[in-house]
Specification:
heterodimer; A: about 220 residues; mainly alpha; 9 helices; globular; B: about 250 residues; alpha+beta; Fumarate Reductase Iron-sulfur Protein, Chain B, domain 2; two-stranded antiparallel sheet; elongated
Chain lengths: ~220, ~250
């Protein structure tokens, strides 16, 4: 039972769902980057992702479960952690022993959650409505214009960039922390930590670059 | 030097506490932090005031009795020492020093700066031991070969004095560093391997029952630990726990 309810189980749940989302993010960036160099490639990849049965009915539900697990568990952990110190310190010098980013994962997480809600409203729900409610005709060329059109609005683009800065901060701590949680801390950890920090900077920057590229090329 | 002390005063666990300000003259840089509090208490007693209650015992950094959150850090600003090893030369003339108890739901305040850390004792009792028959025919421990790396790592873990600075420093008041050190000091050695599965399950279960928070790997515990216990022990405990849970 402890495997599901203990504090370590909760850490491991955060870790594994987080690592899964990290892999998803890399895949998402690869597809998005096609929109910069070839609208046709972007359309064909997006069409594949939007119509392939395995992606739609196996990968997509797993992804949704992964996202929900990560967020719900994050909020449960946060509420338990707050209860563990009901009276706060008068003076607390957290910066002397830990990074701001590591102490404020809930803040960066909430910003990412808000971003995800907007993202679902922009892309996922219209897509589901198009395919499964209004039963729109299959059109493998519509994805590029739909995506790029979203970056015409400067406020939306700014929000997008801001969310990815916060995602980078979240990954800066979260990606390497996920390995510690599942017990991976050995002679390879230093190299792995280098990779996780590199990923935390480069992947969000990639998303930001694509957003700004489309915003400036409207 | 002359200091202003903002000290948390609380009559008992049932009443609310508050900061009270005291000023103290003629503090020598060679005094330990606890000696400085002794001087303050002598002044308070001479003035017919209630002295400040704080934990202390060996005053040489090995018993884990002294605590105190000093200017926002457990055991004060210096690294790898306990409060009793902190000297007043680490402060400057005219400084204001804020002194609070270690704060955690699992460490309720008894009075003023003294907290009840018996939650740590209960975690130890849940599995922090090995079952060796000591009725007269005990085999010499050195007859069991132990590799140097494991012996060193076990000793590193065993240097934990259970002071609770890890809990005090952690933003979540998590006891993972303490528990992981106490799990590892046994499980790294052949004598401890026999009961390793049940030990980690029981100690983590007790840790959770006591109401400590969850570890989020900020590393504050390691940075503030007076004995420099490494986060590697937490990873080791996580590994052991997962293995033990699957084994049952």
């Amino acid at each position: 039972m402890g495997l599901f309810t203990s504090s370590i189980a909760r850490k491991v749940t955060m870790s594994l769902s987080g690592l899964f989302l990290v892999i998803f993010l890399a895949q998402h960036l690869v597809i998005n980057s096609a929109s910069v160099f070839s609208p046709e490639t972007f359309n064909s990849w997006s069409h594949f992702m939007g119509t392939n049965g395995l992606v739609q009915f196996v990968m997509q539900p797993i992804l949704i479960i992964g996202v929900l697990l990560h967020f719900i568990m994050g909020f449960i952990l946060e509420s338990q952690n707050r209860k563990a110190r009901p009276i706060k310190y008068g003076v607390f010098k957290g910066n002397n022993n830990s990074s701001w980013v590591s102490r404020n994962m809930i803040l960066s997480g909430i910003v990412i959650l808000v971003f995800l809600a907007v993202h679902m409203y922009d892309f996922f729900f219209p897509e589901i409505a198009y395919k499964y409610v209004s039963m729109g005709p299959e059109d493998p060329t519509r994805y590029y214009a739909e995506t790029v059109g979203k970056f015409a609005d400067p406020i939306r683009t700014f929000g997008y960039v801001l969310a990815f800065v916060l995602l980078g901060m979240h990954l800066w701590h979260g990606f390497s922390s996920a390995f510690q949680s599942i017990g991976f801390n050995n002679k390879y950890s230093r190299a792995l930590q280098g990779f996780t920090k590199f990923y935390a900077v480069v992947v969000p920057l990639g998303f930001i670059f694509i957003a700004l590229y489309h915003f400036l090329n409207q | 030097m002359k200091l202003t002390l903002k000290i948390w005063r609380q009559k008992n666990g049932q009443t609310k506490g508050a900061f009270q300000t005291y000023s103290l003259d003629n503090v020598s840089g060679d005094m330990s932090f606890l000696e400085m509090l002794d001087v303050l208490n002598e002044d308070l007693i001479n003035n017919n005031e209630e002295p400040v209650v704080f934990d202390h015992d060996c005053r040489e950094g090995i018993c884990g009795a002294c605590s105190l959150q000093i200017n926002g850090e457990p055991h004060g600003p210096d690294a790898l020492i306990t409060t009793c090893q902190l000297h007043m030369r680490s402060f400057n003339d005219g400084d204001t020093i804020t002194i609070e108890p270690f704060r955690a739901a699992a460490f309720p305040v008894i009075k003023d700066l003294m907290v009840d850390r018996s939650a740590f004792e209960r975690i130890q009792q849940a599995g922090g031991y090995i079952s060796v028959n000591t009725s007269g025919n005990t085999i010499d421990a050195n007859t069991i070969p132990v590799d140097k790396a494991s012996a060193d790592a076990a000793f590193d873990a065993a240097t934990c004095i259970g002071c609770g600075a890890c809990v005090a420093a952690c933003k979540n008041a998590s006891a993972m560093l303490f528990t992981s050190a106490k799990v590892s000091q046994f499980s790294l050695l052949p004598q401890g391997k026999v009961e390793a599965t049940q030990r980690v399950l029981n100690m983590v279960e007790q840790m959770d029952k006591e109401g400590f928070g969850n570890c989020t790997n900020t590393g504050a515990c390691e940075a503030e630990c007076p004995k420099g216990i490494s986060l590697e022990f937490i990873a080791r405990m996580n590994r052991e726990y997962l293995k033990a849970s699957i084994k049952g």
